[in-house]
Design goal:
By secondary structure, the chain is α/β, with parallel strands linked by helices. The protein is 38% helix and 14% strand. It has a domain of 183 residues: TIM Barrel. Bound molecules: zinc ion (2 copies).
């Protein structure tokens, strides 16, 4: 059986291959990155040479998957048209980028309904998702991330993700549309991580689940807040995370850490080591 995939969100400031090497140095074998600066929309085309270097590295070192994370600036359901257009443009860019590096998908926080409610933004959202998927390579995958539900953030409930999938069934079937489960967000949104696999099964969401964001939570159960903590150091704790990680239905999924790190500089070897001790 293939070794469990453990990675983290790392900076690509020093280049793609350098980020992959840092991950290996931490004891990991998978990676999540931004396609550029998370603080701005500006992007330039990715040199094919740089993409090829990463693809070779992954092949030679049995490394991957490499997942992209969309910008936090993205909001597909806001009330400013320029922001929506920038969001669509940047997601199209990221899906192309993901295909170029042979990545396994782009994880996206869809945005917030800003108090209007999910129903009010649903049709526009589905239309925009379709626009993005139709403008991007068939080898790219759009992954919806569950949220903690803060400030009207979309998809804190599994049924909301199910509803989007039901509106775009061919894309789900073709592997173009899937989702990512974040343990911190799920816990903060009031999901019991000990029974979450049954809940996913109930909404027939297991097939489309492509990656786990493995984070502890600084805030209590059902707090609706989104603040990550190092593995085992937060309100979820080692015991529950261990039972979650040992669920057979979830054992094929890559794990990506988005934790603050024990020295505050982001994911580190110690977090990877703790995850391994829980498997
Ligand atoms: Zn996450
Ligand atoms: Zn988060």
């Amino acid at each position: 059986m293939q070794q469990r995939r453990i990675g983290a969100h790392l900076s690509v400031g020093k280049g793609l291959v350098s980020a992959a090497k840092s991950m290996v140095a931490m004891g990991g074998n998978a990676l999540q990155i931004f396609s550029g600066s998370p603080r701005g929309w500006a992007r330039k085309p990715l040199d094919q040479e740089k993409a090829d270097a990463l693809i070779s590295y992954c092949k030679d070192h049995d490394f991957g998957p490499v997942i992209l994370h969309a910008l936090y600036l993205v909001n597909l359901t806001g009330d400013r048209d320029d922001l929506i257009q920038n969001s669509i443009k940047s997601l199209i860019y990221d899906l192309h980028y993901s295909a170029q590096i042979h990545g396994s998908g782009v994880v996206v926080h869809l945005g917030s309904h800003l108090g209007k409610g999910f129903d009010a933004v649903f049709d526009d959202l589905v239309g925009r998702l379709k626009t993005i998927l139709d403008a991007t390579p068939k080898t790219s995958t759009f992954l919806i991330e569950n949220s903690a539900g803060q400030e009207g953030k979309l998809c804190s409930k599994l049924e909301d993700i199910r509803r989007i999938f039901d509106a775009l069934p061919t894309y789900v079937k073709d592997g173009r549309l899937g989702w990512c489960f974040d343990t911190c967000h799920g816990f903060a949104a009031g999901y019991d991580l000990l029974t979450i696999d049954a809940e996913m099964q109930r909404y027939q969401l297991l097939n489309a689940l492509k990656v786990i964001h493995l984070n502890d939570s600084r805030d209590p159960f059902a707090s609706g807040r989104d603040r990550h903590e190092n593995i085992g150091e937060g309100m979820i704790g080692r015991g529950i995370l261990q039972k979650f990680l040992q669920k057979p239905l979830l054992s094929r999924l890559p794990l990506i850490l988005e934790v603050p790190g024990f020295d505050g500089n982001g994911p580190d070897a110690k977090n990877v080591e703790i995850v391994k001790s829980l498997l």
